[in-house]
Amino acid sequence: MSLNRTILRFPDLPGPYDEALRQAIDYLDERFDIAAVAACGSIVRGAPDANSDLDVYVINRQPFRMRVQRFFSGVPAEIFVNPEFQVRAYLSQEQRAARPLTAHMLATGFVMYDPDATMAALRREASALLDEPPAPLPNPTLSRYMIAAMYEDAMDVIDRDPHTAGLYLHEALWQTLTYIFRAQPAFVPRTKDLLQTLRNTRPELHELVEDAMDAPDTRTSAELIGRLLDAVIGARGFFEWETEPEALTPETDKQRI
After folding, report:
1. What's the whole-model pTM score?
2. What pLDDT digit, counting tens, does each position of 110-138 carry?
């Protein structure tokens, strides 16, 4: 079913982006049975970076999903095609994971086409999700242990293989940044906004992170990341802990603790 062009709206975008979005809509109208469509992302919000792309969210009447990346008039576009029920599944999954990417896209996007108010309903659900705290971190002690173990592995090899140590340290740093927000609990900011959010909410931790990233050598960086771990998770390596007993049956999926 083709789009009803009389109710199709376009956001006010600069020339290249406007032409790219119009081409994208023509392309999508030929390929999909569209229930609703929204333009999302930093370009639509009026704050694009040099390499920003158009984000286009399509509600598909057919029960399949797709991800499409194409250039239109030289502008990169990321296109997310999902049936309505799958979007709701994403909202639920991302709330549990504290990474509300879909909710943020829908809540801040520009609705271009929505004849049955499908997108309007999803946007209300997305906005409500963003107004509520995310689900608590399911096992904070396990998360702390994984970070501490990663840091310990870095220190094991730092003298004989500083590059491998650097990989461990950067991963420990990233996991610690995620933990800071999840432990509150709070949504983890988008990667582009994470450090600025940390600066605004925990400036003393932000200073440690910046110093660690600017450190002149791996050993100095390791010490600064260690101080961050001291402040956030209270450990730099192995510590004693245990899980609650979990009853199992032969059919229970075996998952590594």
Report:
1. 0.85
2. 999 999 999 999 999 999 999 998 989 99
Q: Residue 111: helix, strand or coil by DSSP?
A: strand
Residues belonging to the chain: 257
Specify the 3-state DSSP secondary structure of 223.
helix
> Among candidates 142, 110, 135, 99, which has minimal Cα distance to 43?
110
The sheet carrying 54-60 orders its strands as: 66-72, 75-83, 54-60, 34-40, 110-113
Three-state secondary structure string covering 167-194: HHHHHHHHHHHHHHHHCCCCCCCCHHHH
Q: CB neighbours of 256 closer than 8 A, spacing ≥ 6?
A: none
CB 122 within 8 A of CB 138: no
Q: How would you classify the pairing of strands 34-40 and 75-83?
A: unpaired
Which residues on adjacent β-strands are paired with residue 82? Answer: 59
Query: Are 133 and 94 within 8 A, CB to CB?
Result: no
- Which is nearest to 226 in space by CA: 208, 210, 206? 208
Q: What is the pLDDT of residues 40-68, one digit of tens each?
A: 988 888 877 767 889 999 999 999 999 99
Contact (CB, 8 A) for 59 and 84? yes
Residue 6 DSSP symbol? G
State both tokens at 71: 């250039």
> Which regions of 50-121 does DSSP assign to beta strands (E)?
54-60, 66-72, 75-83, 110-113
CB 75 within 8 A of CB 95: no
Write down all domains in the chain, each with its CATH number in brackets. 5-131 (3.30.460.10), 140-232 (1.20.120)
For residue 55, which of 115, 108, 128, 7 has the smallest C-alpha distance? 108
